[in-house]
Amino acid sequence: MTRSENAPALVIGATGRTGRGVVAELLRAGRPVRALVRDPATSGLRADVELVTGDLTDPASIDRAAEGAQSAFLVWTAPFATAPAVVEALARRVERIVLLSSPHQTPHPFFQQPNRLAVFHAELDRMVIESGREWTIVRPGMFAANAILWWGSQIQLGDEVRWPYGAVETAPIDERDIAAVAARALIDGAHVGRDYVVTGPTPLTQAEQVQAIGDVLGRRLVFHELTPDEFRAENPAYGPAANMLLAAWAAAVGVPAYVTSTVEKITGTPARSFAEWSRNNAEAFDRDVIAPA
Ligand SMILES: NC(=O)c1ccc[n+]([C@@H]2O[C@H](COP(=O)([O-])OP(=O)(O)OC[C@H]3O[C@@H](n4cnc5c(N)ncnc54)[C@H](OP(=O)(O)O)[C@@H]3O)[C@@H](O)[C@H]2O)c1
Which residue of 5, 82, 216, 242 could cross-link 278, Cys pair, CB 3.0 to 4.6 Å? Predict the structure, then answer.
């Protein structure tokens, strides 16, 4: 079956960091977009995006949302239980599935630490590959956007970032570049059956990343090195995720970051630098955006 280009791409996670960019890339390419949202009233998506209400925990809603769609972008951010039924629903309805996964197969110590999410991603990869539909898997390394989650409030409040493993390198990727690769895979059959590990263009230590944000803000930020125990004690909200992160950083000490040129190969444009990402997201770190108490 080949549906016309006029059939929409269904974007799951369309209000998220990556999905919003996938929507934008598809619209830029003149493709119709259907966005799965949990709350249409708060989606903030453009009026020319068709909104369908649904939830990954409710496979019947995914079945309805995918009807008549040509392809689907799948990002999983829900409990794991309904994943098989959701992939089955998509496979019944669409010709092509593009999955956002992670580089759990990449033989670099940073990606090889025991991690519940990696085990789930491996299962999800298998389900999509065995779905009988065309598939592409996109595997981003470290999201640049983690910097907001990790350091945003510290930088809003002062000039010190308290964090462990300042010397560990990663190659943070701008979420717009992940989205650009995923959108190419939705549009272009040349990417069917391909598996793409995507990273930012340049290795940077965590301390250099903090400094790059400071440069954009015109502030001198100080990286205050924490021990793993201090990190756990100062960040109780991370729970078990703290140990997962600490294990990945510990394993990567002294190892050059894993860098690919996949973004440029797929999109024709070099991956955006961390400095560019920081300029685009400066507001998230700015003291002036703190809401008054
Ligand atoms: N952070 C990293 O360094 C990294 C690296 C590799 C891979 N990943 C993977 O990337 C994925 C996260 O991508 P992201 O950062 O772009 O996502 P995100 O910004 O967290 O956005 C999540 C999206 O999923 C939607 N969503 C959440 N729960 C849902 C549900 N039950 N049903 C339907 N939609 C739901 C949210 O919609 P609402 O507006 O309704 O909340 C939102 O649009 C994860 O699978 C993660 O493992 C992350």
Answer: 216
